[in-house]
Amino acid sequence: MKTGVKMIDIAQKLGVSVVTVSNALGGRDGVGEEMRKKICDTADEMGYIPSNTKNERRKHIIQKLGKNVGILTAERFIGDRGTFYWELTANISNNLSKLNICTIYECLKNENENTGNLPNMISENKVDGVIVIGQLHRNYIDVLSRIEIPLLFVDFYDSRYSVDSVNSDSYNGSYMLTDYLVKMGHKKIGFIGTLNTTSSINDRYLGYLKCIIENDLEQRRDWLIDDRGGEYSLLYNDIDFPSEMPTAFVCNCDETAFRVISALRSKGVRVPEDISVVGFDNYTVSNICIPTITTVEVDIKKMADVSVEIMEKKLLDTDYSEGRRVISGNLIIKNSVLDIRTHNQGE
């Protein structure tokens, strides 16, 4: 049977309008019975499949091939209800349910990640595909990449492995934030985030660095500040500020920006009057902070939609490869940045 036949193809073959074809196939008024029969017969001959029929066929195939999809998250990424990863997981699970796919969730314990033990849902063949949310150790990615069922990474990637992934646009998002600070007159800008903790932090640093280089601004090692315990660790450290401070900090996430603002306040430094601070994610903490945090909004809903769309395709065709999908974000301007051009002019 031919595929991809559209109403316009039928209309062109019969010399009628697309509206006439649509009314005929939909059983609506405005089309004579003889013409309706002719259109329906031609549609059958050409192999036309109505969209709703296509969806039902896909759903039926999915139900047969992929009844269960696993969602795997490393223990260190598990947060309270309402956190970024919690909401991303909930959105993906809800979208899978709309396809009548059951979600099996499993938390990857630190000891299992270190020893390379596969999750029970994989070792016991309980799932037909796996979506991993949040960064994994490279050694564990090596183990996981060998499984023979569809695999998708969400909110991280590793260039050494050809595993499909869905990511927010960390690079360009951080560039936008840094460029906004430059437009506000800032020339001394630091970055806060521990490199190699996640691919997202690395990309956000590179976006920041690109903007610094393009504007021929000063690069200082003491303005690159750690915010957590090292490679793969999400445990936050106390911020060790340099003796000579920049006028602004780009933080790798809103949580870090919130902590930076609190730490500065404890030292008697005002935000944004003394130092400006920006974050990333546009999550809850950016709105409850005083001042509210200028940030880049990550489109969680779209990330979830695209993730499920890709997994659906992989369940239908185990050879399907998407590559790396990047979801753009938007600059959200709030109250944590001072326009020092205006401020300096007023002095």
Notes on the structure:
The structure is a single chain. The chain is an alpha/beta fold and 347 residues long. 43% of the residues lie in helices and 14% in strands. The protein contains 14 helices and twelve strands. The chain has helices spanning 7-14, 18-26, 33-46, 51-65, 84-98, 110-115, 120-123, 138-144, 170-183, 199-214, 254-266, 284-288, 300-316, 340-346, and strands at 68-74, 102-108, 130-133, 151-154, 164-168, 189-192, 224-225, 248-251, 276-278, 295-297, 324-327, 330-332. The strands form three sheets. It has a six-stranded parallel sheet. Helix 5 links the parallel strand 1 and strand 2 (102-108).
Features:
single chain, 347 residues, alpha/beta, six-stranded parallel sheet, four-stranded parallel sheet, 14 helices, 43% helix, 14% strand, globular
Topology of this protein?
Blueprint: H1 7-14, H2 18-26, H3 33-46, H4 51-65, E1 68-74, H5 84-98, E2 102-108, H6 110-115, H7 120-123, E3 130-133, H8 138-144, E4 151-154, E5 164-168, H9 170-183, E6 189-192, H10 199-214, E7 224-225, E8 248-251, H11 254-266, E9 276-278, H12 284-288, E10 295-297, H13 300-316, E11 324-327, E12 330-332, H14 340-346
Parallel strand pairs: 1-2, 1-3, 3-4, 4-5, 5-11, 6-7, 6-8, 8-9
Antiparallel strand pairs: 10-12
